[in-house]
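A quick aside before the break. I want you to see a complete sequence-to-structure record at least once, exactly as it would be stored in a machine-readable document. Don't worry about memorizing anything.
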Amino acid sequence: MRNIKRIVNSRYFMVFLWMVIIVAVWEVFAFIVQFTKRTPVNILPHIYGIIESILDTKTINGSETALQMVLINAGATLSRAGIGFLIGTALGFILALLMNLSGTVEKIAFPYLMLIQMIPVLGMAPIVLALTGDIATSRIVIAAILTFYPVAANTLAGFKGVHKEKHELMYSYTASKFQLYTKTLIPACLPAFFTGMKIAAPMAVTASILVDTLQGGVGLGCLLSQSLKGAMTRYVFWQIVVLSAIVGILSFVLIGAIEKRVCPYNQKPKG
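That is the input. The structure line, written in tokens, reads:
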């Protein structure tokens, strides 16, 4: 009985249960769509249909299968999103550090940080493209901008969340400001910093895909747009959706694994 309770209460069981629920709900709606006499591929296909399209070896453009096309375009989109994510993460952390060091910097920078976040991605894309003059560079910049805010805001909140008693304790040991940050503040803000990264990673990928649909060229968004216009099998659309979901989950898990390595003191004790 204890083993059963342990299994039911485990994280892996909950993940499995949620996956079963999602699949069940998906299939119910797929059957509803099918019986409305619309084409299920165009709206909501069955999961087995998506799996069959992934395994299908039939070429679409004479040389590549649907899966090969998706993976090739995914490489272009994810590489741009990854570079933008790393740049945005670094700049976000640096700005949060500067804002915590100086109240003046915080008063000047934070309103603009909020303003940038409020601009829609599709509205931002033409402006960034005009400024950079290069499609690939503009997509990296947009991914960096989308990453920048959640990392900076969460890291700053992490800095602000450190109790003043810890400051006073460090100063009582005649610690310098550099020691205060390296020994106390930065380690204390890391959980918030990683939370910002977990939020930002899927946003960077989503932004890259959306900008691809607007600017064209090589990328998942361009392929997505072609699929919706009927230029290729509609299952390409659903392969992109599934791949994007997997990338989002993997990014969350990867950042969480890095957080456990870097911040072992922040983990809840078992049992």
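Two observations worth writing down. The chain has a mean pLDDT of 82. The chain has twelve helices and no strands. We'll return to this after the break.
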